[in-house]
UniProtKB/TrEMBL annotation, chains A, B:
This is Transcriptional regulator, TetR family. Keywords: DNA-binding, Transcription, Transcription regulation. Pfam families: TetR_N. The keyword Transcription applies. Residues 4-64 form the HTH tetR-type domain.
Amino acid sequence: MDQATAEERLLDAADTLFYERGVQAVGMDAIRQASGVSLKRAYQLFPSKEHLVEAVLRRRDRAVLAGLQAYTSARATPAARILAVFDYLDDWFRQPDFRGCAFINSYAELGGVSEGVAALVRGHKRAFTAHLAALVAAAGEPPALADQLAILANGAMVTAAVTGSPEPARQAADVARRLLEPAQGVT
Amino acid sequence: MDQATAEERLLDAADTLFYERGVQAVGMDAIRQASGVSLKRAYQLFPSKEHLVEAVLRRRDRAVLAGLQAYTSARATPAARILAVFDYLDDWFRQPDFRGCAFINSYAELGGVSEGVAALVRGHKRAFTAHLAALVAAAGEPPALADQLAILANGAMVTAAVTGSPEPARQAADVARRLLEPAQGVT
DNA sequence: CAGTCGGGAGAACGATCGTTCTCCGGCTGC
DNA sequence: GCAGCCGGAGAACGATCGTTCTCCCGACTG
């Protein structure tokens, strides 16, 4: 097994286990067993568990944003691209191993004790909101809508995780549709 | 020190430390030191750390819902009572030690490995949504609004925690105000 | 006032964790 | 074919954790 596939297998195993059980509940030996990569090799690829945790988050950050990009850019109109975000959530929430947003979970578990993890989570959510802001700007909607949609999306993630139901995706999409209607109060 | 105050001091110290650093990052000895209650006494009040964690969550559940009740019932009109939820969040987010919702954090950290914690978090969020549902019903709004407000509130909590800003409370309130306007599409 | 009992301080214990080291087998270059 | 080395398996190590035990002081009861 060459170095690249060992690294990939390690990241795959660590990602799955961390997401399922949380970071602190997973020992390095469980990652070794799940990945098939020896501890010695693991430690020469990632000098500590914290490095591995951060590498997992960095890879997931890229994957999530790429997936979201693919989902939204497939739609025809700017408004449809905004609503596609919630279709993306709906698909995600229906996956049987869904257990919330790995970044929110990591922040909750480690944000208070690991500045590295906290910074990565902040960066991911900032990038997520920036993606929404680009969609909002392309749709000619007011910039304030981006933060509102981000709150909706994050809220749907945690609510779906806690309740174990995919319903929040549809409920958040309903709200988003209301926000895309022309405003009433101001004329 | 009698039994009741020992229990209260334990719960106070454990609550503060768990909230600051997470549950697994806090050892029983740190709780002993912060509370001034001996380990022996602690273990005859709570037979294990897991019991203590669950007792902390149960007490916080009561406190949060009572605080919310006080906040919302102080307003005059049904619509104002709904919007008061977001004033409550705004006050909360501005507290210097704010680090997100303890229930969401606990679920993220332990929901995958402790069924007791997961059940308590589900119960708290269900009660929170039920409170919103009561306000929504009293305002004569459609029942679907309650779940939408819950998503908004939960989203504001995690977004405020990750970004470290109280802004999400106001942004979520803006969305809630839009939802309280009469709907447009359906006439 | 003497004896008993509850509680405090902290050591002790077994388990587990992150990390490193040892030993050994198999592949590579001459 | 053989010496040298890289990597795997797993033991070892020190730290820390949850939990229990020991020792001792101080207070209450007859």
